[in-house]
Design a protein that fits this description.
The protein is α/β, with parallel strands linked by helices. It has 16 helices and 23 strands. The protein has 2 domains: 5-249 and 453-476, 3-Layer(aba) Sandwich (Aldehyde Dehydrogenase, Chain A, domain 1); 254-442, 3-Layer(aba) Sandwich (Aldehyde Dehydrogenase, Chain A, domain 2). The chain has helices at 39-54, 57-60, 63-79, 81-92, 96-114, 152-166, 183-192, 206-215, 228-238, 263-275, 293-308, 328-343, 376-379, 395-402, 418-427, 460-466; strands at residues 2-3, 5-7, 10-12, 19-23, 30-35, 123-125, 131-138, 142-146, 169-173, 199-201, 221-225, 245-248, 253-257, 286-291, 347-350, 366-369, 386-391, 407-408, 410-414, 432-435, 450-451, 454-455, 469-476. The strands form 6 sheets. A 7-stranded mixed β-sheet has the order 15-16-17-14-13-19-20, sandwiched between helices. The longest helix is centred in the N-terminal third of the chain and has 19 residues, at 96-114. The structure holds nicotinamide-adenine-dinucleotide. Nicotinamide-adenine-dinucleotide (NAD) binds at residues 146-151, 173, 175-176, 206-207, 210-211, 214, 225-227, 230, 233, 248-251, 283, 381, 383, 409, 454.
Length: 478
């Protein structure tokens, strides 16, 4: 399968003549190729987005028309969910069901924001009998959006839908490790008749196309979902231009399990929080568990027993529970972290090895116990099926451990006591706190990072306001 760049409303034959292979992480076979966008394509994409912005296509579009366009995209995403889900599973490794669900979720996101096109409420602010002030939400202009490989279809939908509501036009780069399924967006935009230039999709390696896109002066705003290292590079690169950035970055999310928690539920949440969805390659993975000694033995016994039985395999097998890591590099990275965990003196309670099936990038569910809070495995994002367990005596100590990393994306508290859950939620530094389960989510709910996990919010109304800026108009009445 050959994937072209989608610029100014059409798929474009390659100008750079550079073609990149995309590998199936379950068997190392080539799934397809993408055209890498270099300077010429990038210029065309930014020019198209700027023209569309200057023509006020999104800003002057009737909200009902915008809503219709977004609902039509949602319908098409549902139409293509099966074939799109198959492809996503081949290039990304997740189960076919998860991938079909990702298309369905992306459709729900477009539907949700389709319902928001006429619901932005601006403000009228009184300040004396002879003045009149109003404040409106306005776009930044052309937004550059850079997407990671772990949830490329859902991240694309959320970022695009919210930016269109505000009126930003878009140049977007899907991830090079998993770009093919994003091609459905170009196909859908063509079929729906999305106006030229309001979205342009360009492909390529992060270090090549991504860097060029960031360095280009065509963007007025950057929305980046990915690692803190690249976010930092983007900030340095754009420092002179002083353009706003929106960052959804990594995490080292912790669950605190109090002695009165439902242990079976906490175990199920851990399994789905770190092993099942995408083998821990998820920004909000439960990569740390802080558990009270009173219940620790029971929790560990049950967790190890369940995790041992998980079926490791490729995403096209409906029995699979733990899917492959995205690449050989990622396998090496996870292996290095596990080795460093062993060297730090932590107890390897389960796993710690590549799976016997060498064809794909399969890694065993891995649990470390007795981890020191300053160990590398306790501090850095591993992005694999590896979690670290800690003990605590007092509630203050649990909070101290939860807040002991530079990250602050998600976290959880397991307790039957709502007062304690509230007390805990108030003290954990993270953008999302889940109580008694992991992944209690919805398109209408905002999320985002504290600390090194980023800034800006996505989801619900907060997401819309996060992708724009306000303008005040003040009038003196004669
Ligand atoms: P990454 O930072 O390596 O890459 C993300 C995107 O940036 C890709 O499209 C890549 O091509 C591009 N890129 C890479 N180097 C670049 C550069 N120098 N200049 C411009 N663009 C560049 O991250 P990844 O490995 O794709 O994704 C994993 C990371 O993303 C993890 O840290 C994870 O936690 C984070 N993530 C965060 C969220 C969230 O919502 N907070 C969601 C998903 C993933």
């Amino acid at each position: 399968m050959e994937i072209r760049n989608y610029i100014n409303g059409k798929f474009l034959d390659s100008l750079s003549n550079e073609n990149l292979p995309v590998i199936n992480p379950a068997n190392q076979k080539i799934v397809g190729n993408i055209d890498q966008a270099l300077d010429e394509e990038i210029n065309l994409a930014y020019e198209a987005a700027k023209r569309a912005f200057d023509k006020r296509i999104l800003l002057d579009m009737d909200p009902k028309e915008k809503s219709k366009m977004m609902r039509a995209i949602a319908d098409k995403l549902r139409e293509y969910k099966d074939i799109g889900g198959q492809l996503l599973s081949q290039e990304n490794g997740k189960t076919i069901k998860q991938c079909i669900d990702e298309f369905k979720g992306a459709a729900d996101t477009f539907d949700f924001y389709a319902g928001m096109t006429d619901k932005i409420q601006n403000k009228l602010i009184p300040s004396g009998k002879d003045t009149f002030n109003y404040v409106v939400l306005e776009p930044f202009g052309v937004s550059l959006q850079i997407v990671p490989w772990n949830y490329p279809i859902s991240i694309f939908s959320g970022m695009v839908a919210q930016n269109w509501i505000v009126g930003n036009t878009i140049v977007i780069k899907p991830p090079e490790l998993c770009p093919i399924s994003s091609n459905f967006y170009g196909k859908i935009f063509e079929e729906v008749g999305v106006p030229e230039g309001i979205i342009n999709i360009v492909h390529g390696y992060g270090e090549v196309t991504g860097r060029k896109l960031v360095k280009h002066s065509g963007s007025d705003y950057i929305v980046f979902t990915g690692s803190p290292e690249v976010a930092s590079e983007i900030l340095k690169e754009t420092a002179d231009r002083i353009i706003p950035c929106h960052f959804e970055l990594g995490g080292k999310s912790a669950a605190i399990i109090y002695p009165d928690a439902d242990i079976d539920k906490a175990v199920d949440s851990t399994v789905k929080g770190i092993f099942k969805p995408n083998a821990g390659q998820i920004c909000v993975a439960m990569s740390r568990v802080i558990v009270h000694p009173k219940i620790k033995d029971e929790y560990m016994t049950k967790l190890i027993s369940k995790s041992k039985k998980l079926k490791i395999g490729s995403g096209d097998n409906s029995e699979t529970e733990v899917t492959p890591l995205i690449s050989k590099d990622q396998m090496q990275r996870v292996s290095n972290y596990v080795n460093s965990g062993v060297q730090s003196g932590a107890t390897l309670a389960l796993g710690g090895k590549e799976d016997d099936n060498q064809e794909g990038n399969f890694y065993q569910p891995t649990i470390f116990d007795n981890v020191s809070t300053d160990a590398t495995i306790a501090q850095e994002e591993i992005f694999g099926p590896v979690t670290s367990v800690f003990d605590f005596e007092t509630e203050d100590e649990a909070i101290e451990i939860a807040n002991s990393t530079n990250y602050g994306l998600a976290s959880g508290v397991f307790t039957a006591d709502d007062q304690k859950a509230k007390w805990t939620a108030e003290r954990i530094q993270a953008g999302i706190i889940w109580h008694n389960d992991w992944f209690v989510d919805g398109t209408n709910l905002p999320g985002g990072g504290y600390k090194k996990s980023g800034y800006g919010r996505d989801g619900g109304m907060d997401g819309i306001y996060s992708h724009g800026q306000t303008k005040r108009v003040s009038k003196r009445l004669y």
